[in-house]
Specification:
By secondary structure, the chain is α/β, with parallel strands linked by helices. The chain has one domain: TIM Barrel (Alpha-Beta Barrel), CATH 3.20.20. It has 9 helices and 8 strands. Helix 3 links the parallel strand 3 and strand 4. Helix 1 runs parallel beside helix 2. The protein is globular and about 40 Å long.
């Protein structure tokens, strides 16, 4: 399965708001959405994930679930995204369908190498910028993205994440990262999905031009 170059990470102050934002993202042309609903019971997550699957299926948008591979399998989401605090990708792999994607977050070259050994389908490299939520993690910026992608030399897609805006896209893609995951910039204005997609597509046209 080809991983879309843009992934919307859902936000909201309630499960209902997450679903509303997923609906808006799909309406605005998102090709992949990550339901990032935390601190709810499994029962509630299953209920929300089921609705999210219905919404995304209607728009033929791919749906990923954060953390809970069992529910991802139950609702037949397109995959599961694992943070460092979640289960090991190798464990999740044994339980999900063979066609389901497994992605995971990394912050260092070593993190990436470990994840590649566990045969994840994509790696989210984070954070690009300092986030208010966590100031303990090393911010990678353009330099960090470049160093890690050059050292890895992998076919596995690397997705950049962390307060990315439309003005960052061209520079980020020049680092060798293949796509981006965005939360805030899109939740603030869903029309930006079109803008992000145009910038990301422009880069792939550029790559093809250089390939010949």
């Amino acid at each position: 399965m080809i991983i879309p170059k843009l992934q919307y990470i859902s936000q909201g102050n309630s499960p209902k708001e997450h679903l509303e934002n997923i609906q808006k993202a799909c309406t605005s042309g998102a090709e992949m959405v990550l339901l990032d609903l935390q601190k709810v019971s499994d029962k509630k997550l299953l209920e929300v994930a089921t609705t999210a699957r219905e919404i995304t299926a209607h728009f033929q948008t791919r749906l990923l679930l954060r953390g809970n591979y069992k529910i991802a399998k139950t609702v037949k989401a397109d995959g599961v995204h694992l943070e460092k605090t979640d289960v090991c990708p190798s464990v999740a792999r044994k339980h999900v369908f063979t066609w389901q994607l497994i992605g995971a977050t990394a912050n260092t070259l070593q993190d990436c190498e470990t994840l590649l050994e566990k045969e994840v389908d994509y790696i989210t490299l984070s954070p690009f910028r300092q986030t208010e939520k966590d100031d303990t993690i090393t911010v990678l910026a353009i330099n960090g993205f470049t160093l890690i992608t050059e050292a890895l030399q992998t076919e596995t897609p690397i997705i950049g994440f962390g307060e990315i805006t439309t003005t960052d896209v061209t520079a980020i893609l020049a680092t060798g990262v293949s796509g981006i995951a965005v939360a805030d910039a899109i939740t603030q204005d869903f029309d930006r999905i079109k803008e992000f997609n145009q910038l990301l597509k422009a880069s792939s046209t550029e790559e093809q031009r250089h390939a010949f």
